[in-house]
Amino acid sequence: MNPNLSRLHPYPFEKLRRLFEGVTPPAGLKPIRLSIGEPQHATPDFIPRVLMENLGGLSAYPATQGTEALREAIAAWLMRRYRLPAVDPATQVLPVTGSREALFAFAQCVIDGGRPNARVLAPNPFYQIYEGAALLAGAEPVFLNNTAEAARFGPNFDSVPEAVWRDTQLIYVCSPGNPTGRVLSLEEWADLFERADRHGFVIAADECYSEIYFDEAAPPLGALEAAHRLGRSDFRNLVSFSSLSKRSNVPGLRSGFVAGDAAVLKQFLRYRTYHGCAMSPVVQAASVAAWNDEAHVRENRRLYREKLERIEPILAPGLGVQRPDAGFYFWANVGKCAPITDTEFARRLQAEYNVTVLPGSFLARAAGGVNPGENYVRIALVAEPGECLEAAERIAAFCQRL
């Protein structure tokens, strides 16, 4: 067996189940789960309709590269969304079966585990796939703490020793960030691109929350857009990962894409040909329809915007929450309401109010003597508006009791 399997941490939700062992919530309060970032808004009607209309596609093996129609739809969306003059659907776009699968597989393709001291940088807190992908590719993950003190939860690239940068082969960047909602600035991208050029590592930009934002006139800056604005229209050393899951409320569809550096994607396509992860033709047809439609995405944003606007003033007094740059999470500091740990907060909230949130320490690792998730909880506003409001009122009442 791969010895690195023993180094994998339990997933945050497995830790949450253990934390809640022995807890019996009040029977009179309906359970409200705000712990997992699984969209609960309705899937647009046209997506299942297109699926049903294309069931004939099940009779054919899909190509790993996907259909020309899907790659063209994605390329056209990228050009519209990020104001790019050109994206080549033949060489700069590759459909994937959800960004999670691709984020993991990418490290297996990019990392040379035979090189000494192979490193993968990742934000901290982080999406746990980054860590597992690094370990199973034979590299050592290095965590870059994102704290309130460090540029408002942004990355402090200067905190990474030069020796670590020299050994880095891959960096995962999540913008908008999970769980903080922080969006990288153009200046931060410029800094990172310069380091990638100097040290030769690849940037994996996880952008699965990019379409959950709050000002229709000011969408968040994306990685490919930043590269273009900085004169890097070949997207060298950069690959962006996106998905329909949050954008279109179809997490079960398992549909996304990677786009960017054609030379890197050429090798990733070779890897995926053996990996056996081609997207079903039926799903590809529905994905074309989803990427070509923006009306349902604007409505989805409206629902999230209204929830965040109504809930922020309820939670701010006790937890000091602020609306994120983008995304549907509140990153709440439980120390604002009482001297209590994030795990105790989550367990007692479940036991006393039947509301589930995720302890921040489950989303981070101790790095530099600090776990930047400690004393925070992640609140995912994914339920219907009424449920989210009720949960917010319960959380506020709990904070008052504390």
TrEMBL record:
<dbReference type="InterPro" id="IPR015421">
    <property type="entry name" value="PyrdxlP-dep_Trfase_major"/>
</dbReference>
<dbReference type="Pfam" id="PF00155">
    <property type="entry name" value="Aminotran_1_2"/>
</dbReference>
<dbReference type="InterPro" id="IPR015424">
    <property type="entry name" value="PyrdxlP-dep_Trfase"/>
</dbReference>
<dbReference type="GO" id="GO:0009089">
    <property type="term" value="P:lysine biosynthetic process via diaminopimelate"/>
</dbReference>
<dbReference type="GO" id="GO:0009016">
    <property type="term" value="F:succinyldiaminopimelate transaminase activity"/>
</dbReference>
<dbReference type="InterPro" id="IPR019878">
    <property type="entry name" value="DapC_beta/gammaproteobac"/>
</dbReference>
<dbReference type="InterPro" id="IPR004839">
    <property type="entry name" value="Aminotransferase_I/II_large"/>
</dbReference>
<feature type="domain" description="Aminotransferase class I/classII large">
    <location>
        <begin position="32"/>
        <end position="395"/>
    </location>
</feature>
<dbReference type="GO" id="GO:0030170">
    <property type="term" value="F:pyridoxal phosphate binding"/>
</dbReference>
<keyword id="KW-0032">Aminotransferase</keyword>
<protein>
    <submittedName>
        <fullName>Succinyldiaminopimelate transaminase</fullName>
        <ecNumber>2.6.1.17</ecNumber>
    </submittedName>
</protein>
<dbReference type="InterPro" id="IPR015422">
    <property type="entry name" value="PyrdxlP-dep_Trfase_small"/>
</dbReference>
<keyword id="KW-0808">Transferase</keyword>
<dbReference type="InterPro" id="IPR050881">
    <property type="entry name" value="LL-DAP_aminotransferase"/>
</dbReference>
